[in-house]
Amino acid sequence: MFHYNFTNDLRISNLDTILKESANAFLTDTVPPATIDKSKNNNFMTLGFYFNLKAKGNCAKLAASGNIKKVVLNFIKKFQFPNVRTSSDYENSISDKILLAPMRDIVKLLHILSMISYNDAFLTKDEIINFIFYNEDLAKRKNYNLLNTANQILQYRKDHKIPANVDTTESNHIWNQPERQIREMLKTVNYTGCFLEDENGIKLKSDGITRDNEADLFEIINCNSYWTGETLEDYQKYMDEIFMNDEDDKNILQNISSNSYTPNSSQTIYYGVPGCGKSNKIDEETINTSDEQKMRVVFHPEYTNADFVGQILPTNVDGNVEYKFRPGPLSKILRRAYLHPDKKYYLIVEEINRGNAAAIFGEYFQLLDRIAAKKEVPANGYTYTEGWSRYSIENEFINWYIRENLYADVSHKLQNEDDGIAKKSDDESQKAIEIGNLHFSANTGIRLPPNLSILATMNTSDQNVFILDNAFQRRWDMVLVKNEFGKAKTEEEQKNVDQQKTAKIGDSQITWETFQKTINEKISQFSKENNFSSMIDKRLGCWFVKAVPDKNDANGKYIITEDSFKNKILKYLWDDAFKFCHEDVFEDADNFEALLEKVKMDNPDFGVFKNVDFSEKEEEN
């Protein structure tokens, strides 16, 4: 069931005046009784509950002083179901197991839609009703994932099919005048100046958003808290919390500056042909970083969000089964970066496109947006600066994993990080910690800190890979690793380069550099002649195979072994690079096994290539 009740009478068009008037009335105990002015009494009492003026606390004081904006933003961020406007409303929401901050989720959904495509950054009233209020996953937090909800909305716009998690049974919907009450919510959201609202719905402005409006938007997006109390007093305290000791003075805001964290917030994907040196580029960038400051993971088709972030798993504790959160690589490196602001940390993702990267990152996709230089994002009494994620996500398991492990190990040692979070009492779950100048509490959203970088590699020629969509790629610096030996930075590295270039293939007199260049020219030729645009990415990388010392040579000569040539190089060329033109490149062979039988290492063309003369290329060198 879904029981909802809101109001039709917030007087949004005259909100600045009426909120100030009603706040003064509550503070001075001059709210007119219904017997004298029923209309004004009803209006003041409605505003008094929703904007928390009845409590005569910070919300009322700010509204009375004319700071209406902060009071309205607080309402947009924190109004929720269940609430205690009436006991029946509260009991119905509890019975339905609803936990929903509707206006906040509307703003977050519009923002997520804008990240996918600005043209899709709108919500109709029907979409709001179905995908927010009657969404089992969202409204009842069975599988709270706003990115998934956004994708469901986009799919619905294509096929007009309501997903199974949306309850379409009208008898389950107990709500008088839902359209009018949603319109009232949308008018309130529109107060931020970031949206355009009409009778059909609401959309994000494409331009004209001021810096102050943008800061307000970020403040809403980054709010993840919920009230879970039972009494009116608890609810009023929750609504008033954000204003404690604020005095509307920005100088009081605690500044979580990137200066307290080692700036390092790059997100880079190194891409290129197989063996061009992508992983080596990452090694060069992290060469002076200890192993403890790096976390390496390989994406593959079976790799999931649970593997990457963490998951709840059963554990045998003294003969009893307990369920614990087992952190994944992202959670582990995130914790390390949080606890050691003075160090650089790297999450290294190998083969990022061999897994479904968008699904693996899931809602953490939002964290890839970082705050630019000289920009600030206020959130929950703090100001985040350059290098922090612009937006936060809610994850109680990671939040507690960071706080619980810090309590358990005050020396910040990491030997217990694989143990998972222990069972916590209600008191412990509310513990806050201080990490540098960051106050990290149970309500603190998860962000990527400035000292954490994510580096990834991507082969451009892999078969059966997942395509990285534009929305995902936009949040990365894409760096092409050129397929060339180049000049090394040190004498030792140059020695390795020279050994690789001049290594002979088996017992032949053909060097690896000559072979690689000749084959790549052949690939480029066929790509151009046959209009196979993807074939150009099948070229052999300079480090496709590694030269090794020749066991039969006492002078330290390096070679590409015959085994590597046959089972790595030839196999790749047969199965992949020249897959569609065997007859143009290779001597007659029905299959790869037959091709291997023709190999003659002392032959100028190895006995298997057609119209390719490596000796001519060798003479040019």
Automatic annotation (TrEMBL):
<protein>
    <submittedName>
        <fullName>AAA domain (Dynein-related subfamily)</fullName>
    </submittedName>
</protein>
<dbReference type="GO" id="GO:0016887">
    <property type="term" value="F:ATP hydrolysis activity"/>
</dbReference>
<dbReference type="InterPro" id="IPR052934">
    <property type="entry name" value="Methyl-DNA_Rec/Restrict_Enz"/>
</dbReference>
<dbReference type="InterPro" id="IPR011704">
    <property type="entry name" value="ATPase_dyneun-rel_AAA"/>
</dbReference>
<dbReference type="Pfam" id="PF07728">
    <property type="entry name" value="AAA_5"/>
</dbReference>
<feature type="domain" description="ATPase dynein-related AAA">
    <location>
        <begin position="271"/>
        <end position="370"/>
    </location>
</feature>
<dbReference type="InterPro" id="IPR027417">
    <property type="entry name" value="P-loop_NTPase"/>
</dbReference>
<dbReference type="GO" id="GO:0005524">
    <property type="term" value="F:ATP binding"/>
</dbReference>
